């Protein structure tokens, strides 16, 4: 019953978002002057994962169960934002990797870009986090949710972190778990690219590292943060060694994380390195 209710809520929530989008579009078509901030607040009000903020991006891709901020410059997501879905179902992994045709062709990654590149199509929003209904899992296989990851990172370290986040979310005192993640580039280092051998005219720069910032809300209303910065290479270090302050992620990525949360307590939380759960 809980699963059915949540599924109905998600479908109703996305329908409300589409209605609001149509309303704003109609208002603009009639020549009404609407501020950019008002438009964004209108559209975000029915996307629960954006409750505590959403960084800037060239193009925001609103999916049914998560959102992506896409970078035209990097031809991949700058960030992906989700609420971890706690329900376990018999929905199988879709494995239907495909291009996201909402992204303009000149900036859009294709399957050919990853072929024989030596890098994995690494999920930002994990497939196993979104398994309530088939379309929910399928959407995680859009290439706008992928980034070129070293195989050892994708299949071991990043996977271990995804599993650890689900364990955190499963704790009885955790009401909701928000996850914001994305690539990090270090322009003091050489940037390797993939996809130059195919004919689509798009190359993908390979990130030097990835970040994942986790925000939980518990049964006492407290908000806690954990952030990780992991190099895009093989490593034998334990997950705890990759913990960093959230403010460090902001400096390295150029993004404002959880920007709707303000005040001295939030700043203290952002500068803290919490122990593993």
Please describe the structure with a list of short key phrases separated by commas or semicolons.
29% helix, Extracellular Endonuclease, Chain A, 277 residues, alpha+beta, two-stranded antiparallel ribbon, 2 domains, globular, disordered N terminus, seven-stranded antiparallel sheet
How do the strands and helices of this protein lay out in sequence?
Elements: H1 2-29, H2 36-44, E1 59-62, E2 66-71, E3 76-83, H3 111-114, E4 120-123, H4 134-139, E5 146-149, H5 151-169, E6 174-184, E7 193-194, E8 204-205, E9 209-218, E10 223-231, E11 243-244, H6 246-253, H7 264-270
Helix pairs in contact: 1-2
How would you describe this structure to a colleague?
Residues 1-10 have low confidence and may be disordered. Helix 1 packs antiparallel against helix 2. A hairpin with a 4-residue loop joins strand 9 (209-218) and strand 10. The chain folds into 2 domains: 1-46; 51-270, Extracellular Endonuclease, subunit A (Extracellular Endonuclease, Chain A). The two termini are 30 Å apart. It is of the alpha+beta class and 277 residues long. It is globular, with a radius of gyration of 19 Å. It has helices spanning 2-29, 36-44, 111-114, 134-139, 151-169, 246-253, 264-270, and strands at 59-62, 66-71, 76-83, 120-123, 146-149, 174-184, 193-194, 204-205, 209-218, 223-231, 243-244. It has 7 helices and 11 strands. The protein has a 7-stranded antiparallel beta sheet. The longest helix has 28 residues, at 2-29.
């Amino acid at each position: 019953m809980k699963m059915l209710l949540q599924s109905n809520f998600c479908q109703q929530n996305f329908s409300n978002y589409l209605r609001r989008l149509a309303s704003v579009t109609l208002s603009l078509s009639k020549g009404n002057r609407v501020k950019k901030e008002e438009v964004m607040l209108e559209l975000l009000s029915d996307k629960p994962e954006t409750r505590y903020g959403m960084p800037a991006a060239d193009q925001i891709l609103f999916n049914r169960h998560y959102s992506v901020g896409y970078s035209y410059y990097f031809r991949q997501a700058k960030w992906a934002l989700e609420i971890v879905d706690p329900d376990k179902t018999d929905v199988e992994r879709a494995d239907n990797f495909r291009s996201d045709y909402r992204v303009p062709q000149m900036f859009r990654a294709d399957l050919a870009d990853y072929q024989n590149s030596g890098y994995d199509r690494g999920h930002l929003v994990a497939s196993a986090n979104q398994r309530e209904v088939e379309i929910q899992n399928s959407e995680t296989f859009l290439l706008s949710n992928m980034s070129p990851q070293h195989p050892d990172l994708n299949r071991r370290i990043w996977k271990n972190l995804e599993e650890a986040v689900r364990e955190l979310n499963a704790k009885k005192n955790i009401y909701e778990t928000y996850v914001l993640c994305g690539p990090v580039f270090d322009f003091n280092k050489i940037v390797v690219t993939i996809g130059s051998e195919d004919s689509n005219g798009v190359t993908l720069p390979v990130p030097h590292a990835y970040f994942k910032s986790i925000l939980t809300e518990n049964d006492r209303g407290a908000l806690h943060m954990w952030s990780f910065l992991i190099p895009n290479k093989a490593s034998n270090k334990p997950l705890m060694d990759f913990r960093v302050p959230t403010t460090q992620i902001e400096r390295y990525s150029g993004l404002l994380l959880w920007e709707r949360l303000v005040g001295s307590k939030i700043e203290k939380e952002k500068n803290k390195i919490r122990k593993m759960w």
